[in-house]
Amino acid sequence: xxxxxxxxxxxxxxxxxxxxDGHTDVLFALTQQRRVFYERSEKGHVDLPRAKEGNVLxxxxxxxxxxxxxxxLKGTRQLLELVENKxxxxxxxxxVDDLEKIATSGKLGxxxxxxxxxGFDSExxxxxxxxxxxxxxxxxxxxxxxxxxxxxxxDPNTPEDTRGLTAEGxxxxxxxxxxxxxxxxxxxxxxxFWDAIDVTNKPLIASHSSCRVLSPHVRNLTDDMIKAIADIxxxxxxxxxxxxxxxxxxxxxxxxxxxxxxxxDHVVNLVGPDxxxxxxxxxxxxxxxxxxxxxxxxxxxxxxxxxxxxLEDINKICHGNFMRIFKEVWK
Length: 331
Ligand SMILES: [Zn+2]
Known about the structure:
Blueprint: E1 19-24, H1 26-32, H2 48-53, E2 56-63, H3 69-84, E3 90-92, H4 96-105, E4 108-115, H5 125-133, E5 135-139, E6 145-146, E7 149-150, H6 167-179, E8 182-184, H7 190-199, E9 205-206, H8 223-231, E10 235-238, H9 242-245, H10 258-271, E11 276-278, H11 297-306, H12 311-329
Zinc ion binds near residues 115, 187, 208 and 284.
């Protein structure tokens, strides 16, 4: 599908270097690690005080694992209750205007995202209900297989599945396009990825995937995939997980944080600065020790400056490219 490019979202201006992060599993971590969002913790990666210190404007709050209806409903309830608790200083982001308001209010934006939609029905009733509750983004699969398609397995010994997206999966993308929900291709198998590119008529994102040419993990994107995403005006959120950054795909926590910027450099060199941002995977993966947690965004922005990115390009990477996608996909 050919998508007309309109790169600058007119009229949107946020403070310099504010961060929109394409993926955090903080919802899962809060329960696992028995901590509360509004209190600073040494555990995990994300809470309110640390996110503010990292100059974060908004994050995609992933419901994981979205492998069936039970987990999706449980996660939705948890997210809504988190936002309802005023101490958490969160705003559920439903439209672009919300982000512009948050930027001056000192609050943090939560973008309702589901990582895999196992248990969604083929008539899309659940999709429509969750949209009304604030759902603005979803990944079709986690690393599993469901009614809509096949995900990429983490096990390199599992042969790549050739099924790709089902007829229901293709229909689902059209429905999401019409409704104004972002479709996320991170975690799709390669065949499902290309099917998604073929059928969409809105930009797609890979919310938390890095570059396969630098780190040959199946969850990462080949150069052709990155070009295809740029061709439809989508974007890639670079994943901070050690295994997605390293050539040997190991979880070694001594991985230098500069590797994250190497992946950003790679996308920029390939397709320019309009198609890349951050998709940390904080609270869902092991990140370099030097990044530590969400406060590590300060370090990453400094590294972009050190590598002579212009302020305009830094802003695109920090938030501008996501803002463009929101403007183009949400209503
Ligand atoms: Zn993930």
